[in-house]
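Dear support,

Our group has been running a series of protein-ligand predictions, and this particular one with WQD is the one our PI (initials K.S.) wants archived with full inputs and outputs. We had some confusion internally about which version of the output was final, so please treat the block below as the authoritative record. The input we submitted was:
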Amino acid sequence: MKKILVTGGCGYIGAHTIVDLIENGFEPICVDNNSRSTPVLLEGIEKITGKKVKNYKVDLCSFDETHAVFQENSNIEGIIHFAAYKVVGESVHEPLLYFENNLLSLINILKCVKEFQVPYFIFSSSCTVYGNPDEIPVTESTPPKPAESPYGYTKQMGEQIVSETTKTIFAQSILLRYFNPVGAHPSAFIGEMPLGKPENLVPAITQTAIGKLPQMKVYGNDYPTRDGSCVRDYIHVCDIAHAHTLALQYLIDHKNKSRCEVFNLGTGNGVTVLEAIKAFEKVSEVKLNYVIGPRRQGDVVAVYADNKLAREKLGWNIQYSLEDMMSTAWKWELKLKEDETMHNNPNFQMN
Ligand code: WQD
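Confirmed final output from the archive:
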């Protein structure tokens, strides 16, 4: 089986991608220092796939630690690089933390890709590179605008670093620009585990609905959109995960026309915040306790994808609807509460 290194594999998208890789015959190994994640999702991966995935708890900002992983795993066929900090607000207050962590880790990985002649490299990028686009939907050739945050700059710079580097080394690469990944694996064995108060919309919705948060704020309903709230392209995390497997296979089958290709990973549908809340209320039958608050700094008014390239070139077909995104997110939140209740129950026997 082809060994695939998944950095940030204990994270939300990383864990779902590991499941998809296993289900498609690859042998993923995980590299994650668990600074923003816990290995608990690896247990969920094992429950879903029956496979125990090894995690190297390594700081990718240390070249020596990173290099050691490649020395121990000589036959790495491909790399999917998720590992990065991604909290937009935090990046505004801590730019150097974000530039150092997100770029130094990428550079160390690419130095090893070069030395060990790894043939395929996939970079986790983001629609954030488009900033506030003049026209929507955005295509892969929509010119990037100034990023809205240092986090966004690390994705723009990361794309440049990958693109320029793979012109000179053995590897072929793909940049995947995620829109808004949401939802959870249908089994509810893995899902999103925000650290602290959730920044993102869907975990804020589900944590409010389950009572973890007292109330949710909609950040503005005075935007120039159909209902005044911001428009985003919410995409199920399992659809995102499968796109990584397809992108890897695309490179393995030498279907790529250039050494570094870009693909938008979105549904192509724009959904407002208020519409997302309505979809959640419909599938969960829970009335969400929210108020309209002031706009959030750095928010893009509206962005959604033209996903034609990924559909046609990668053979990517979206499987999950907005209702599926909300129902799987809710099922995961309910499972987290059930596990918490069990672990707090003195009669609970660890199995
Ligand atoms: C979506 C909408 C908020 C929370 C994220 C990541 C970014 C990138 C793209 C990975 C906005 C509104 C949110 C809340 C709200 N992902 N909202 N109340 O900002 O599009 O960006 O996805 O690269 O890293 O940050 O997603 O979920 O934070 O916000 O009204 O409590 O929901 O204002 O309009 P965003 P988000």
